[in-house]
């Protein structure tokens, strides 16, 4: 990995911002000035532009500079090799960043129609993955959705490359949205089927490791304790029913979720 100093990093970020601002549909004024902005402020502006960029061909210079920046940033992260973790009944809990896991696949939740039209102020696993993996992720997700056949309209997963991430592939899954705060029987079945679809895809692809985020517990408002219970029970029962050596990581980003998963693990004698 080529080493970059702060001046070079600053130059790359400024060039990327300039390219994105000058695109026809940018929400930023072309008179926008970076003169008094710190590097961190510029990096946040770049993230906003990448999130809001509409799906269209990616210019070579944009792609090259973005990949150079992300390759450098990701090289500074502490990467977790999924094959080196200790598993009980092929399952484990990891408190940390999903974008730092080197696995065959990582799984995140996304909008019902696989829309990539997120707001710049949103925070979710999909956007973390996008900003660490590159805008190619958004491009491929939109392409796969556009190309799906009419018979595939009820598909709940999309399978795309990991690009700049340590994970080889990404599975985007449609988890149910809880609107009233009450979880119906159908909502439970939908979340169960969401996990099963990802596991079946892992089986089809011959994966050995897969890492799940807490599907549905962000903007989709699925109750965290119930979501963890469903995640663990579904994966446990699927692994028991399928003679397939798949190791599953439940990646959580805070202590509350970690405790929820630990409680669910105890219910299945996984300690």
Task: Bin the helical content.
Answer: 40-55%
Question: Number of helical runs?
Answer: 8
Widest sheet: strand ordering: 2-8-7-4-6-5
Mean pLDDT: 87
Layout of helices and strands:
Elements lengths: L5 H16 L17 H14 L7 H16 L4 E2 L9 E5 L5 E2 L2 E5 L15 H9 L2 H12 L9 E5 L7 E5 L11 H21 L3 E4 L11 H18 L5 E6 L2 H13 L4
Parallel strand pairs: 1-3, 2-8, 4-6, 4-7, 7-8
Antiparallel strand pairs: 5-6
Descriptive account of the structure:
It is a single chain. By secondary structure, this protein is α/β, with parallel strands linked by helices. It folds into 2 domains: 6-75, no CATH class; 80-267, Leucine Aminopeptidase, subunit E, domain 1, CATH 3.40.220. It has helices at 6-21, 39-52, 60-75, 125-133, 136-147, 185-205, 224-241, 255-267; strands at residues 80-81, 91-95, 101-102, 105-109, 157-161, 169-173, 209-212, 247-252. Helix 7 packs across helix 8 (255-267).
Search tags:
8 helices; 2 domains; 271 residues; two-stranded parallel ribbon; 6-stranded mixed β-sheet; single chain; Leucine Aminopeptidase, subunit E, domain 1; 44% helix; alpha/beta
Overview in brief:
Helices cover 44% and strands 13% of the residues. With 271 residues, the protein is an alpha/beta fold.
């Amino acid at each position: 990995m080529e080493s970059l100093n702060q001046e070079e990093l600053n130059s790359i970020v400024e060039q990327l911002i300039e390219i994105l601002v000058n695109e026809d549909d940018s929400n930023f004024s072309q008179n926008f000035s970076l003169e008094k902005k710190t590097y961190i402020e510029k990096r946040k502006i770049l993230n906003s532009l990448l999130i809001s960029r509409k799906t269209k061909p990616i210019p070579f210079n944009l792609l090259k500079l973005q990949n150079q920046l992300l390759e450098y940033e990701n090289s500074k992260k502490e990467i977790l090799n999924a094959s080196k973790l200790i598993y009980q009944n092929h399952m484990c809990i990891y408190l940390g960043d999903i974008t730092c896991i080197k696995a065959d696949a990582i799984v995140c939740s996304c909008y019902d129609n696989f829309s990539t039209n997120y707001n710049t102020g949103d925070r979710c696993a999909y956007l973390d993955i996008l900003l660490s993996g590159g805008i190619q992720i958004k491009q491929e997700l939109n392409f796969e959705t556009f190309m799906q056949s009419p018979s595939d309209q009820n598909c709940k997963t999309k399978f795309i490359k990991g690009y700049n991430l340590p994970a080889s592939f990404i599975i985007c899954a449609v988890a149910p949205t809880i609107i009233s705060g009450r979880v119906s029987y159908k909502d439970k079945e939908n979340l169960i089927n969401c996990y099963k679809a990802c596991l079946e895809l892992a089986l089809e692809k011959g994966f050995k490791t897969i890492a799940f985020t807490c599907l549905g517990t962000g903007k989709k408002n699925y109750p965290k304790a119930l979501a963890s219970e469903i995640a663990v029970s579904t994966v446990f029962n699927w692994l028991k029913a399928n003679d397939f050596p798949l190791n599953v990581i439940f990646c959580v980003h805070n202590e509350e979720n970690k405790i929820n998963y630990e409680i669910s693990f105890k219910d299945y004698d996984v300690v």
